[in-house]
Amino acid sequence: MYELGVLRAIDEAFGGLDLTQLKVYVGVSSGAFLSAGLANGISTAEMCRIFLTNESDHARFRPETFLRPAFAEYGRRLLAVPRVLTGWLTDLITKPLDTEWTDIVGRLGTLMPTGIFNNGAIEKFLREVFEHHGCTNDFRHLPNPLYVISVDLDTGATVRFGSNGLDHITISKAVQASSALPGLYPPVEIEGRWYVDGALRRTLHASVAFEAGADLVLAINPLVPFDAGLATFNGRAVPENLVEGGLPTVLSQTFRTMLRSRMQVGLEKYQRQYQESDLVLFEPNPDDVEMFFTNVFSYQSRVRVAEHAYRATLDDLNERFEMLAPLLAQHGISLRRDVVSDPHRGLMSSLGLRPPRQTDATARLRTALNNLDHSISTRH
Q1: Per residue in 138-178, pLDDT tens?
Q2: What is the C-alpha separation between 96 and 73, in angstroms, rounded?
Q3: Calpha distance 173→184 (Å, rounded)
Q4: Pairing of strands 193-197, 216-220
Q5: Residue 325: which pLDDT band, with cuts at 50, 70 and 90?
């Protein structure tokens, strides 16, 4: 939801840029949802209608889709209980001197589910979106390349769905794999291999875009470690320490710190290897109380989070205007001062009236005309 708010702000603030007509898209984890949508020609306004207002003809988004318990995974693990206990008891009887009581801990670990929630429903939702209304669920039929990043669980290697040899995998399945965060969602099986969240190896994977020929990369990182000291200094109400938030807060801060540290290493590498290209990064401020303490399982707050991201991004662009405007101009993009400096501008109000209802035929025609118009403009 934060990334969606950022994208909507970029869409409005950057003149001469169509986010549905970029040269290449790279999606990692939750970002794979949005990059796949943009690559399919779904505008930021339409994605806001899908995920925030439920006014879209593309799909009916139901938040519970992302929070359905993984009952099949639970059942599979329960069925293994007799086998595991029998094996341990057999070893205890036949090899009593070689078997310790602590062995039961390791064996019981194999009975724990690999994920709390069912991500099969997520894949089904995406499949329904990408197979209708002028979209495609096939990497090979997209007008511009899309790469969805995941990690092979058995090797730890990064995998680029959408690249040669892996472009026959459906986009919805690739996004499901890229966003399978261990502990929350089970690993995803694709052709006999198991895949997990793409952010486990690297945060941005911007090199994929640079290698595809991008001279300007727009990157969004929604997870930064929280700086309680800075928040207190700026007058924001925060707990005395993060330990008071218990294990979820500690794990959240740990995960964010690891991601941010790896991203900084990557940014330094990009500056050395791709000196002729530019990267503009969007992320929350380290004292952003709203982002850090929002319940990630509460989709009731999705409008508030997206709206917050929209405003924070416009404010950030306004602060960085003197630096970013010349840089973007080198790439044929104008930074609209009237948009970024408007303190009353809001995400929901930016959507305007709901567009006329579309059929699959009119949606396909719209997509074809948009692609044609972009091709003509590019040639001119």
Answers
A1: 999 999 999 999 999 999 999 999 999 999 999 999 999 99
A2: 33
A3: 17
A4: unpaired
A5: very high
